[in-house]
Amino acid sequence: MVAKIDFPKVMCTQHPDSVSKYIPIQEEPTEAIEAFTRYGCDEYMPDYEGKTTPYHQNVQIVSKIIEETGFIPGKDVFITPRAPSAVHENRFRQLMVMMSVAEANYNANEYSDFQAISELVHPMTSTIEEIVEAQQHMLDISELAKKEFNFEMESPRIIPLIEDVPGLLNAKDIISNTILGCQDQLNDTFEKYRIFIGKSDSALTFGHVASTLSCKYAISSLHELEKNIDTKIGIIFGGGALPFRGHVTLENANNFFEEYRGIDTITLQSGLRYDHEEGDALKLVKHAKNKLSKSPDEFSSDEKEELINIIAIFGASYNRAIKSISPVVNSISDFLPQQRNRLTRCGKTGYSRDTPDITQISGFCRSDIKKELESSMAARNLDLPRAIKFTGTFYSIGLPPEIIGTGCAIADVRNKMGENACERLLTKYFPSMRSDLKFAFDYLNLSTASKFLPKEAMECVSQDVNILKEIFDLDNECDPSYNILLDMVPPEVLLANSSSIDTDQDLLQLMHSTLFKMGKIRKSLG
Prior knowledge:
The chain is α/β, with parallel strands linked by helices. The chain contains 23 helices and eight strands. Among the domains are: 46-158, no CATH class; 302-522, no CATH class. The chain has helices at residues 28-37, 57-68, 91-108, 128-149, 165-169, 171-186, 200-206, 208-227, 253-259, 270-275, 280-291, 301-333, 359-362, 367-376, 387-396, 406-417, 419-429, 433-441, 446-449, 455-472, 480-488, 491-494, 505-522; strands at 10-13, 43-45, 78-79, 119-122, 157-162, 192-198, 232-238, 265-268. The protein has an eight-stranded parallel sheet. Strand 4 (119-122), helix 4 (128-149) and strand 5 (157-162) form a beta-alpha-beta unit. The longest helix has 33 residues, at 301-333.
């Protein structure tokens, strides 16, 4: 039996999901101090993934903690940077971040015997080889620090961030093999090992329900793995304020902590800190420290098989709709504010999401469900925006993305897998689905959405809405203030290319003001 090990409970992050506050990179070290002193977090994530974060930020943050607080980094509070992916960005940027970790540890060594930074997050993990390779790079840099500065540093561990549905469903095997590979590499036995699971990007590619079920499947399977090895596994859940991205809010706290039982750490993102009521973030942090100790849901082998088929059904329904909607998303998302210093979406130094490889799912599905999932996927990469702007775009046209494909998928589950499977979906696998949809329905306006979406897509969405109304007894009464703003959104501007609207600055200003006010009402950019 593995002895109890405490992991950090709340990781404050630099996600750009706040609508009301732009945080330049120069202010992020101060933000890190506030995370510990104002909000009570015990971990902060400097973020280099898709961001222009300066490499010396790790050094700045560690130095400010030492100089301005009574905390010892690496003992009382934790700094856990997210490095760029060598595959999806480039290896040079990843190595530079690792060098900055070595510098931060070297500087902090003068003041404390505790290593300031002992872990790094690796984003968009899709193969074990990526983690093993990144771990080797970190090991090489640790050796370089010893050679050049006579500085002994324990090589920081790499935390895999799994954020697509295929990866989440295979998390047990991925992490089992990763632990074995990294232990051999470092010639060490791991007493503990952390994994980061992502709600947002799995929702972007497979829809809200499939994403939620996949995260819960991963949590359960990782606890199964833990029972059979001598390593304590710590699970970080990455989620934002809106349901599509996790519904991590004070208002939804009871649902959230019950839905995702078995996680060890939550993320406290910008939207909750800056857009919600004063004090909500601190209350949620205190709530998390009391609630993050529950045992996870356990699924039988039959339930796992059923879950994979349900996930595939929801993924197919969502992707059928998204294929016809994606051009609209990309056009509108560029008008939403950029709240952190980010890299551009495309190009050699840019950043975008790829369509997931579904073979790891389809191979475990029933043949009819497999066929539908495969036919639903886009033939080419849709080059969608990042999850925050993706989510914000749909809310801005009166169609919360939680709704897309969901009603039709529930009907498909009932038709293909039977009434009992549908009942288990709604009562055991995802009991807070109604709560998430009720939130989304407060921002739903099909009349506005129809101005932006093609007729075929609107027919699917209308069907979703009608089914959801009937199943969950939901009203389609949009928030009155939000409804007024939706009526003010000019489709001809949002759907036009930028060159045609440069001359009409008054209309452009009205549009930005309207989008901003809508974000303030829903309390998050996306």
